[in-house]
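If your schedule permits, I should be very grateful for your opinion on a structural question. Thank you for your consideration; the sequence and its tokens are set out here:

===
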Amino acid sequence: MKSSQKVIDYLNFLLGGELGARDQYFIHAQMYAEWSFGKLYDRIYHEMQDETGHAQLLIQRILMLGGKPNMQVSEIHIGSDVPSMLKSDLELEYRVQEHLKEGIALCETERDYVTRDILVRQLEDTEQDHAHWLEKQLRLIDLMGLQNYLQSVTAEVNQQVNTH
């Protein structure tokens, strides 16, 4: 199936963002695990898996449209403490939201409604799940204070360890 080259190029741009988000969440999850913030590890590792799934859908769509996936990862921003990590992740989600909205508009202009629907589902996930949860965590830090918040997210980390 052939598609507009504009759509394929934009999907590759979005793919770079999803790969960057995956990598940023991955390193942040590992940092949370190291610091024994198991509840944060669990959630951010889950977000990393979601971003991997988003990237997979984009790759599949690019291939279906006759394009070649560009696996160039966009820039990532690693925080140095819990608040800066949460803020960095939230800024990432806000950027992804804007890029998805631009992609949705492009797909409508190019009359590619199947791709548009894929991007709409990713936008819903980004706005209603990822960004909203991060906003709540930052609000909790403001309400509870950082030390109380950190105490509330401390738990054993049940990482899957690869012994190969």
Q: What stands out?
A: The mean pLDDT is 93. Residues 2 and 65 are 5 Å apart (CA to CA).
